[in-house]
Amino acid sequence: MGSKFARSGALLALLALAATNQAGAQSPLLKEIENSFVRLHEDVGPCVVNIESQGRVEPGADGERMEDLFHFFGVPMPQPGEPGAPDENLPAPRSTGSGFIYDKQGYIVTNNHVIEDADRITVRLYNGNEYPATVVGADPESDIAVIKIDSPEDLPVAILGDSDKLQVGQFAIAIGSPRGFEGSVSFGHVSALGRDGLQGLSQQGLTFQNLIQTDAAINLGNSGGPLCNIQGEVVGINTAIVWGANSIGFAIPINTAKRSIPELIAEGKVTRGFLGVTIRDAREFADALSLPDNDGAIVIEVHPETPASLAGLEHDDVIRKVNGTDVKGDSDLMNQISAYAPGESVLLQVWRRDEHGDKFETLEIKVTLQERPQQAAQAIVQEPILGMRYSALTPERLERFGLPPEIQGVMITAVEPESPAGVAGIEAGDIITEVAQNPVTDGESFRATVEENSAPGKPLLVRYMRGGNGTDITVIRIPKDK
């Protein structure tokens, strides 16, 4: 931290030196730079809110809630019994994040991980007034969420900028509640653009990255707060830091949020196109595949009964273009496909070895996209069922755990020890595939089937998978006083 402030101080010293008209005299240029930061805080500060989310730490949960909420990576999570590990038997303290006011109706933009699984959300405005908030919509894969307060006040609204116009080296200003210190302002620069492939964040569910890197001082609790340009426009949503680093933070580009927010408000989730392939960057295979350059995404596997399989895509195909737009790599392909709506058709340019196997050819394949499976609908579920919390079984989760892509069900993320599910032996990480001998296809079917078959005193037959040990069954016994 000290080194960052030293660098910032050195920058200001250089500015002061460069802006001196004569010995001992301060230039209007330096004063105007200072005034710009003061005005920015005055203009943007009232639009930034503090968000407190309260819930319980669930035993065996997929990661533990922290006192201040922020994605971080680069350090292993302490295991139970190790120093720094949370006590699983105690309620979680209030967890602090940030957000900014999107419009005068009380819609507020923040990170999904700030409000995920919260039982109660409280928003505190710049003037100290507090309001309860409800979740309107959430998109775990981009870590964007919209919450809403009902306030009689005339709410100040943040001005959204254009993150596509950002350049490395521009000023970047972060505003939020680091460690609960509300209204804190720090400044730095845009350090890099288009950061993706960050595995630590992918494992936490942040699938769509393309992040802004900044050296502005952001800390735990800044999560969901705005990253602004010198004009006071919001150009990013602060979402992650590298643990132990002094000046490496990441923000979601505001243009990504601009596309998602209206859909989150209207539908509660983001709907994306889906191809149905496992892919990797073609760069490392370019020589072996005789590619003319390093661009493209190579198909590792085509999932059955998906748009890709129905259109005739094959493993080892290299997807080079989507509707005439170059594909730079696997992340680029995923972003391009996801930008289309389910039901739309796209024309793929594909590099494939010919049927004789002695040369390659370029093909054009038309694919009609389906809806991308996602966690958004399940992310808004507030209450556990029979003591279980669960999330969607996405293709990314299947791939991460080495499971066949055709498996359907839900993944259990937490189980209350003395609950019916806990007594039956269900554990976090189990994949439930059947309830009462009915297949589970997604979170909605899981909850509906459990509720339909949960008569007081009734035994509920559940089929599940655990690790690589195949399937098993158990009986969840519904309490008679349910």
Radius of gyration equals 25 Å
Strand order of the largest sheet: 1-3-4-7-6-5
* N-C termini distance: 53 Å
Which structural class do you get from the secondary structure elements?
Answer: alpha+beta
Q: For the record, what CATH class of the largest domain applies?
A: Mainly Beta
Summarize the biggest pleated sheet.
6 strands, antiparallel, barrel
Poorly predicted segments: 1-10, 56-70, 72-93, 375-382
Number of strands: 27
Describe the protein's topology.
Layout: H1 2-18, H2 28-44, E1 48-54, E2 71-73, E3 95-101, E4 107-110, H3 112-115, E5 120-124, E6 130-139, E7 144-148, E8 171-176, E9 184-195, H4 199-202, E10 211-214, E11 226-228, E12 234-242, E13 249-253, H5 254-267, E14 273-274, E15 277-281, E16 297-302, H6 307-311, E17 318-322, E18 325-326, H7 330-338, E19 345-353, E20 360-368, E21 370-371, H8 376-379, E22 388-392, H9 395-400, E23 410-415, H10 420-423, E24 431-435, E25 438-439, H11 443-452, E26 459-465, E27 471-477
Parallel strand pairs: 2-12
Antiparallel strand pairs: 1-3, 1-5, 3-4, 4-7, 5-6, 6-7, 8-9, 8-11, 9-10, 10-13, 11-12, 12-13, 14-21, 15-16, 16-17, 17-18, 17-19, 19-20, 22-23, 23-24, 24-25, 24-26, 26-27
Please, could you describe this protein's structure?
The chain has helices at residues 2-18, 28-44, 112-115, 199-202, 254-267, 307-311, 330-338, 376-379, 395-400, 420-423, 443-452, and strands at 48-54, 71-73, 95-101, 107-110, 120-124, 130-139, 144-148, 171-176, 184-195, 211-214, 226-228, 234-242, 249-253, 273-274, 277-281, 297-302, 318-322, 325-326, 345-353, 360-368, 370-371, 388-392, 410-415, 431-435, 438-439, 459-465, 471-477. 41% of the residues are buried. The longest helix is centred in the first third of the chain and has 17 residues, at 2-18. The protein has 482 residues and is of the alpha+beta class. The protein is 20% helix and 32% strand. It has eleven helices and 27 strands. The strands form five sheets. Strands 1-3-4-7-6-5 form a six-stranded antiparallel β-barrel. It has three domains: 1-270, Thrombin, subunit H, CATH 2.40.10.120; 273-371, Pdz3 Domain; 383-477, Roll (Pdz3 Domain), CATH 2.30.42.10. The chain starts with a helix and ends in a 5-residue tail after the last strand.
